[in-house]
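thread from #wetlab-drylab

HS: before we spend reagent money on co-crystallization trials with molybdenum atom, can we at least see a predicted complex? here's what I'd submit
DV: go for it
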Amino acid sequence: MKADKVVRSTCPFCGVGCQLLLSVRDERIFRVEAPFDAAPNFGRLCVKGRFGADFVVHPSRLTAPLIRRERQQPGKRTAATGPDDWREATWDEALDVVAERLLDLCARYGPDSITANACAKATNEDNYLLQKFLRQIIGTNNIDHCARLCHAGSVSGLQLAIGSSAMSNSIAEMEHLECFIVIGSNTAETHPVIATFLKQAVHQNGATLIVVDPRQTEMTRHADLWLRHQPGTDTALFNAMAHVIVKEDLYNRAFVAARTEGFSQYVESLEDKTPEWAEAITGVPADDIRRAARSYATAGAAAMYWGMGISQSTHGTDNTLTLTNLALMCGHLGRPGTGLNPLRGQNNVQGCSDAGGLPNVYTAYQPVDDDDVRHKFEETWLAPLPGKPGLTVTEMVDGILTGQVRGWYVMGENPLMSEPNLRHAQHAVEQLEFFVAQDIFFNETNVYADVILPAASFAEKDGTFTNSDRRVQRCRAAVPSPGIARPDWEIISDLARRCVGRLGKSPSAHFTQNADHLIEQWSYAHASDVWEEMRALTPDFYGITYERLEREGGVHWPCPTPEHPGTPYLFAEEFPSGRGKFWPVDYGSDSEQPDEDYPFILSTGRVLYHWHGGTMTRVSALDAIWPECTVEMHPNDAARLGLETGDWVELSSRRGAITARLLVTGRSPEGTIFIPFHFAEAAANVLTDNRVDERAKIPDYKVCGVRIARSTAPAGRAGADTLLTDRGTIKDPVVA
Ligand SMILES: Nc1nc2c(c(=O)[nH]1)N[C@H]1C(S)=C(S)[C@@H](COP(=O)(O)OP(=O)(O)OC[C@H]3O[C@@H](n4cnc5c(=O)[nH]c(N)nc54)[C@H](O)[C@@H]3O)O[C@H]1N2
Ligand SMILES: Nc1nc2c(c(=O)[nH]1)N[C@H]1C(S)=C(S)[C@@H](COP(=O)(O)OP(=O)(O)OC[C@H]3O[C@@H](n4cnc5c(=O)[nH]c(N)nc54)[C@H](O)[C@@H]3O)O[C@H]1N2
Ligand code: SF4
Ligand SMILES: [Mo]
């Protein structure tokens, strides 16, 4: 078919940030390809990028603002049961309701009674404006987003060690790696195009790959060494590797002396962390730990890539610190092919944080409690700003329960699928006085809202996304939005102008004298106007402009001046913290351990074909390939319980129960059950535990106790036999 136009944009799914060519005919996208000459993917796409964008035209897209017919009362809020519970409204009417109710809560309970979730699927511009709205108009720092449920453990560890949490290497460096460790990352399913470059490093360039994962992921098939440890035992494993490196004198003395601090104390802490000690905890043979330590330490350049297996833990910060310790002692930082790389998940999770969608910082991590920084923002935003950091997403849920939080603004997230211990989170949502959601679809969360604002999807708006390696790239409108849906930045601007209009009349408002200027400031004509304001306030982005992105395709921040080339890899000269700091870490666990009543470990995660709560992928062509939840169990466990592939089973934890079908496979280790969290009818987070890592506030999605029992098919669920072969990417599961 001949296209009316071909629009270059960025994939809306994962943090690789693949460049897309959207072929449009009669205002519909009919083909998705990738440009061969453009970073980061150079013509490659995974199945989601190529075939998953059809969610954009699904008939269930939100097309008009919706207002709940019945006024919801705190403590008695319920989910809407169908379309009749809503009435369609004009933008004027819906935004007036939102402005009135938010300002009313503000007046009655203070600005900190309102809290918001930013959106790692939306653009930098969308998120910049949401945090500006919260801080400037409402007067609170209560804004956070799914990064808290994601790389918070990596961020807090990296901040403690080197003062920066961004990925150190660019994707372009990957195929030239010499040695690398992939830890708790199912890269081939979750960052598929990055996985192709990593495999190329191994098979075309002879790189050494070490995989550290309890589950047999596809990456294990390409590995020289696979350390299959017990879930939750990473700190023991990595401490033992460090022990070997010290004992065998394989560490980099010059680097340790020139660029680090705290080494001798750290070395003392390693004395008893022998490989044999770690073998007893992790189940990994001591000699394999030695081999891994030697490979990593003696390589000329070596890098680490990790995912949720490290971060999503009650000791996610400690896990990360054991990785930073290793990189610092071997000097594998600051040169090409070396580094610390938390692979960022959502298409714009890097950007959502960079744009200030966090409770403690403005754009590019400028702290809200730094007086000079705050004054700079106050001068531009023409309002006094709060200096106390706000609530994290996990604290918001608890804040609602204690009555501190009364109103919630959720832009493009689905907490009632993605938060741990859903019953707890749902109970919190029921207590809200006012709840407004802004999304492209109904989801399990926004059916509780008073007002739903329909947003334009990635294919219908202009803006920028920042991918996992800090590359800022364009997202471009290719097709019109359905109905009267509008881009997020436009919705927030309109709402902000209304709030100023109302508040501006009140003598007590914090920005009364500037009301007219604020209305003018909030009258952005295009996403690029928003970017201009943001870059002027952010030295790290100052050199990046829309014109430049048009010319160059993408620029890696930090990029302080228009002449600056951008920064593909970090820490060449020094760390943001000055010296890199060693942190002694002990092995221990605060996670819920299996016991007599709940004898299995539950591990949750992802499959290639689906996205998180499934809002986008379960209405796409991809759903036909993977239509339901599978419960992976090791053959020895299944034999003991007399269960077989295809059996319906009930999985239960101390928090709830779900029913799904069993897939007996050696992919999961004995004693551990794995399920994906994409399926609302068998929602993994009914089971998971909401206790958190104290420093990072991240929950443990990878370890809690469950039991399993034979069950029967729930009404209306026939089961899809196509899934019940051991398919997916592993053809030869290892049965240990
Ligand atoms: N198809 C698809 N791709 C996605 C997403 C999606 O929903 N679907 N989501 C995106 C997002 S937001 C993110 S954050 C990334 C996440 O990407 P990943 O981190 O790759 O995804 P997960 O499946 O959560 O888990 C990763 C691995 O951790 C391992 N693991 C479990 N427990 C432990 C442990 O104790 N230690 C170690 N070392 N490993 C352990 C699991 O076995 C699994 O292989 O994916 C992104 N990409
Ligand atoms: N059990 C378990 N739970 C987990 C995890 C796990 O491994 N296991 N992983 C955690 C991780 S790493 C993450 S990142 C979170 C993700 O958690 P969430 O961010 O809550 O999940 P998503 O399903 O990606 O939600 C995105 C929402 O944004 C909407 N959307 C898409 N594009 C736009 C847009 O342009 N504008 C607006 N306004 N909305 C849009 C979608 O329709 C969808 O409703 O889940 C966490 N939860
Ligand atoms: S690898 Fe990620 S960014 Fe690339 S096409 Fe797949 S989902 Fe999209
Ligand atoms: Mo994530």
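DV: The chain has four domains: 5-57, 66-147+352-540, 152-343, 600-726.
HS: ok that's useful, forwarding to the group
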